[in-house]
Amino acid sequence: MSATAGARAPVAISPDMAQLFYRLATAGLLCVALSLASDVFLTVPNILNVLRQTSLLFFMASGLTLVILTGGLDLSIGNNVALSACLAGTAIKATGSPLLGAAIGLGVGALVGLGNGLMVALLRIPSFIATYGMLWVLQGLAYSYMAGEAVYGFPRGFRMLGNGVFLGIPIPVYAMLVFLLLGAGFAQRTVWGQQIYAIGANPVAARLSGVPVRKRLILVYTVSGAMAGLASLIFLARLNSAQADIGDGLTLPAIAAALIGGASLFGGVGTLFGSFVGALILTLLLNGMNLLQVDAKWQPLVTGVIVILAVWLDMQARRRQQRV
Amino acid sequence: MKTILLAASALAFSAGVALADGETIAVFTKNQTNPFFQAERLGAQNAATQMGAKVIQYIPTQPDSIPEQLSQIDDVIVKKPNAIVLVPVDYKAMVPGIDKINAAGIPVVNVTERAAGGKFVAFVGANDYNIGLETGKFLIKALAGKGNVLILEGVRGSLTSVDRVRGFNDAIKEAPGIKLLASQPANYQRLQALQVTENLLQSFPQVDGIMAANDAMAVGAIDALDGADRKALVVGINGTKEAVDAIKSGKLLASGDYNGFLQGCIGTMVAIRSLRGEPIITEKVIQPVVVEKSNYQPWDIPVDARKCPSWEDATKQQ
Q1: Is A8 a member of any domain?
Q2: CATH, residue B62
Q3: What is this structure's pTM?
Q4: Shortest CB distance from A239 goes to which of B63, B196, B220?
Q5: What is the DSSP string of A49-81?
């Protein structure tokens, strides 16, 4: 959509760059407002703090974005994070080996994603239903496995993954940058990535033009699951604990991050960079409300209004871009 | 045949008269995730086993789900247990469900959160305001009455959070040297508490104490302090195993508790005793205990290894 619009526009910057610019405009506006309202906001420690907080949401939103690009949805990521974190956490506690824990966290996450992918691609179950069912399966497993207990207290080395700092910048921020670049490169610059866009834009046309639709679908759900597994490790390392209920509030913000970032639930539209900005906007909101000490009773309302405003502004900006 | 029967009855007799009764008690709790309710369920189970009764647990799969608990009540009325021990997921919204139980003639004991209506055999619970007040005061005493504090609130609108935070605030009001910097919600969630505390530490260069409305948030706040290389005294509420470990290692100052295990014990004992026509108490408000370095030992025993006290001890205690 924006590619054709960009081609018509008589601007020197590439359509990709224009897209990038408009994506950042809303987040930028929010930043300007916050830096006017709070003198702490625009300080290096706070910016690093916000980026570190963004990383967890981004990891979940990034894999999910690929699923959304195919026109699907993954409702199980939050509970995938919870189960992966609980299993990885107990493994680390039992064996003292962070490596084994990491392998289990990533492995369980990817396996769950593979299950979703097989249900969607081979059994043709609508992704909403398949992953909604998976959500409950995972919740049931996590709840019965943990039985109301928490697993906590991990080795210092493992915790560096969440709390560590290298050259003044938190480790999760590096990880986020690496996955942002890798993911964006994969989606935008590889044949497989373009095939994923094609499936979402028009699945029939994609199949007829030789795209291995089933294989790509299985791939995106598996990646989404693996990213949930990665998020579970960052979660464990940052919070030093896991409980069965940690995933309950995570899925919806991840979906919101992708959609605020410009992805469409109809598929074929969206970017990883957009999802990063979406995650950033949601994180900035909490940061801003805390810095300005918005009263507890107003916080949900403020969140809702700003999310709607952000998306509306973004749509206005893109319409203007298309008109030029 | 006869000998087997005789042996069985002798066994029953030696295990205590109670075994002859074998009542079924339906126990309703709010969710499967909060260790507090897990402790409460184990308390109920332990009391019932000691008295030779049977417990069936009802827990909403969706935490704190009002419609789910209502439909579980419908189910249980059909199955007709001898008595019900109920923690309402919402003190107002569950009143219609309690009315149904009353209409079905099943005796019901209200535990932990006091329902706004309905008829109960007894109420066994605690006062969230007091636990907030006592825990807050303990922190202020440890700060020698001077310093800047933060409050982390629970789920907005839940009775437990409103009352605990009111208790914190009143403790602060009594201490002229204490300045409340901010009171922000983290919804009883550890991740949110971590992020909210990280954000607040950006705003305030000097934070001396943090009052969190539950232990999960307290431990999240400690992680934020560690991450920012800052020091402050932190208190939480619930006396969970993790909090006790944090107290032992000196990371957490204290955790207020009103003993979910004991509430489960006494609630179930009252239900069974009333069925058997034994004397009961109709109101038991358990006094809060501030668990800290000098008194944590009883909380250090894993919940599933704890034993309910005798009826005499339970009712006389505190």
Answers
A1: no
A2: 3.40.50.2300
A3: 0.81
A4: B220
A5: HHHHHHHHHHHHHHHHHHHHHTT---TTHHHHH
